[in-house]
Amino acid sequence: MAAVKSQPTRIVIVGGGYVGMYTALGLQKKLRSGEASVTVIDPQPHMTYQPFLPEAAAGSIEPRHVVVPLRKVLKRCHVVTGRATKIEHARKAVTVELADGHVAEYEYDVLVSALGAISRTLPIPGLPEVGIGMKTIGEAIYLRNHVLSRLDQAASTVDPELRRRLLSFVVIGGGFAGIETLAELEDMARYALRYYEGLKQEDMNWVLVEATNRIMPEVSARLGVYTVEQLEKRGIKCYLDTRVKSMEGGHVVLDDGTEFDSDTIIWTAGMKANPMLRNTDLPLDPRGRVQCTAAMQVVGLPGVWAAGDCSAVPDLSRTEEDPTATCVPNAQHAIRQSKLLAKNIVASLRGKEPKDYFHKYLGSVAGLGLYKGVADVFGLRFKGVVAWFMHRSYHVMFMPTVNRKFRVFVDWTQALFSGREVVALGQIHEPKAEFDRATKS
């Protein structure tokens, strides 16, 4: 007679982003009562839908509406707010630094590595001091307040050199994140200028710097050229096949000899695997990602799974051409992988075979500001308002929970009739400043 388990299978998910949250959602729907317990570990108590960060930064969407509270949607899971610092599969334990500073261990029977990638930086002088990232909701809120506050300061100064510096905005990196951030923020700033007496559009200096000879490699070269042309028509300077040599003190020096001062330097030049994975005994590929089978099982480790940006899952739609091809780190793969991953874990628990992940790349969509966009879907290319509508439709479809879909749709509807919100709430970055001044007066 088979032994009966005395307690539910302990499933621990490290990471609460796309893969972590969607996998946990799938598990809590499919698992029978008492079959397994699910614990989700992440430093933040929410999941951020990153494709909407540029619109949140530009005031088209309320920032709170692009994040999903983990405890609210994962009602049958245990959510731990803490940062995983070590995984020892030999002991089946995850070490976590909790939000209150304490260190705890969580033992597991089944492990899911769902860590998200982090920004890939380069040893450029000045980058750590003046660079601003664009991967978190905090960075999106900060950028919005920062850009609008530069307009406020520029409208108040009589120093022409300072005004030029304040009105120079640089985005480094021509992938989707960089292009959408650049386009949305420029669109917002141009809209806001109507309320600033003495400032004109030609006073602003928006700059894109991309190290390769094209932008957004996920779309066709023709659409990439079209996007650059549209950005340049808006007065944005695009430096392709160009690298930043230094940015010390906000003084930007490009390798073609161009130099200028800027008070806003946004870094979106790629991602890399989470360095925490180096503090595990999981098998990693040369890029630091967890090595997986096509079913998202970690190679050689039964009961361990991985998906998303920090996993090397074979891309079966391309392996005939390139046997080493793996899924690229984007939201399209992460969302679809997590839905199958939940099914595979449940199947494995019930003695069934997991299924291989197969998803043929359908195309890409990108927003370039209000009523502007590009799309490359099923080999068909779209531009302008049609592509913009496709971009919004695609992402609201994959935005988790009906609640968040509805809130985002309402935000868009309100903006359609009342325009963008152009208020800088810079005080949130120094909330005690006024109180401190009051106590000293």
TrEMBL record:
InterPro entries cross-referenced by the UniProt entry: FAD/NAD-bd_sf (IPR036188), FAD/NAD-binding_dom (IPR023753), NDH-2 (IPR045024)
Family, per entry: Belongs to the NADH dehydrogenase family.
GO molecular function annotation: NADH dehydrogenase activity
Name recorded for this polypeptide: NADH dehydrogenase FAD-containing subunit
Superkingdom of origin organism: Bacteria
Ranges for domain FAD/NAD(P)-binding: 10-334
Keywords noted in UniProt: FAD, Flavoprotein, NAD, Oxidoreductase
Pfam families: Pyr_redox_2
Lineage, opening ranks: Bacteria, Bacillati, Actinomycetota, Actinomycetes, Pseudonocardiales
Signal peptide interval: none
